[in-house]
Amino acid sequence: MKDSKPPLSFEQVVHIIDDDEAVLDSLSMLLDSVDIKNAIYPNAQSFLTAHEGNSIQQLSGCIVLDIRMPGMSGMECQQRLEALKCPLPIIFITGHGDVPMAVEAMKKGAIEFIQKPFREQELLDCIHHALTLNKTAQKRASHSLDVAQRCESLTARENEVMERVVAGLLNKTIANELNLSQRTIEIHRANMMEKMRVKSLAELMTLLLTKE
Amino acid sequence: MFNHHINHTRLPIIYLVDHQRKGRSALTELLAPLGAQIENFPSAKRFLQHDINAQAACLLLEAHLEDKKASGIALLEQMADREIYIPTIILASSSDIPTAVRAMRANAIDFIEKPYVEHMLVRQVKSLLSQTRSTQLHTPTF
């Protein structure tokens, strides 16, 4: 039987982590009102526990994170998430932040640092921005993965040929370098192009350049 | 035959942009021992009119030029629009979270509230200078 459900990871969810129950409720209602899926957590630890293991890397959406919480602080949580390679953009919200704290959070890759009280629209704009960033990053990641998989399907020989083709060498030169006949190089080259699913050298170059 | 206009010494460049002369001269004095070429500008306009060297090691930029709120950050955003990326440290005579966040989003590498701690700033600029030197060593000259 076929599994008709789309992979869960493509559904974007806004994860809200705050120790203030009133904030959780009001943000959750706000997001519900504009049909954005959301999940709430009373502290950082409960978010980490809920997504233990590798699943944290498969998440899609963004995180709204309070800075000051009992137990693990928002900044500590950001560090943990970075170590776990969590791909979700982080928006910090804080009632007691200062400039050095904001700078530190931004240096570590937070995309926004908002002071409470904030206007609802301000937060919604940030969330939309974060979700867009996340989607773009996912597309890029899946493209890189796709290219990497094509590269991996090459034999060692085809790989050697590809490196030299990309470096601009002619078949004749490659044949000399690898001590093979020109005809053999032509065959390796054709196989390589087919496995990389490209029709021209230009296409191959573009593909490899967009790998990262 | 040979182009004699090439800068053979290739001292790394530090740009300072601050409307306050006292601020610029204090920084110049502080950073002089690092052996870079320090260039001063009193305003964003003067800086943009200058033929900006995109290979400069760093830019030290006042957040509120001519006391106009966040005008220094606006300069940084204009540079990003023109695709000029120079490692920039914002020095802020006054600061608030939204300005700091805006600066960091405009690719500033740091946002420091004045008065800055001298030895920490020197250390930061020093590390930027050594990064420039090592990339220059590996950059082929055409």
From TrEMBL, chain A:
<dbReference type="GO" id="GO:0003677">
    <property type="term" value="F:DNA binding"/>
</dbReference>
<dbReference type="InterPro" id="IPR036388">
    <property type="entry name" value="WH-like_DNA-bd_sf"/>
</dbReference>
<dbReference type="InterPro" id="IPR001789">
    <property type="entry name" value="Sig_transdc_resp-reg_receiver"/>
</dbReference>
<feature type="domain" description="HTH luxR-type">
    <location>
        <begin position="147"/>
        <end position="212"/>
    </location>
</feature>
<dbReference type="Pfam" id="PF00196">
    <property type="entry name" value="GerE"/>
</dbReference>
<keyword id="KW-0238">DNA-binding</keyword>
<keyword id="KW-0597">Phosphoprotein</keyword>
<keyword id="KW-0804">Transcription</keyword>
<feature type="modified residue" description="4-aspartylphosphate">
    <location>
        <position position="66"/>
    </location>
</feature>
<dbReference type="GO" id="GO:0006355">
    <property type="term" value="P:regulation of DNA-templated transcription"/>
</dbReference>
<keyword id="KW-0805">Transcription regulation</keyword>
<dbReference type="InterPro" id="IPR016032">
    <property type="entry name" value="Sig_transdc_resp-reg_C-effctor"/>
</dbReference>
<dbReference type="GO" id="GO:0000160">
    <property type="term" value="P:phosphorelay signal transduction system"/>
</dbReference>
<protein>
    <submittedName>
        <fullName>Transcriptional regulatory protein fixJ</fullName>
    </submittedName>
</protein>
<keyword id="KW-0902">Two-component regulatory system</keyword>
<dbReference type="Pfam" id="PF00072">
    <property type="entry name" value="Response_reg"/>
</dbReference>
<dbReference type="InterPro" id="IPR011006">
    <property type="entry name" value="CheY-like_superfamily"/>
</dbReference>
<feature type="domain" description="Response regulatory">
    <location>
        <begin position="13"/>
        <end position="131"/>
    </location>
</feature>
<dbReference type="InterPro" id="IPR000792">
    <property type="entry name" value="Tscrpt_reg_LuxR_C"/>
</dbReference>
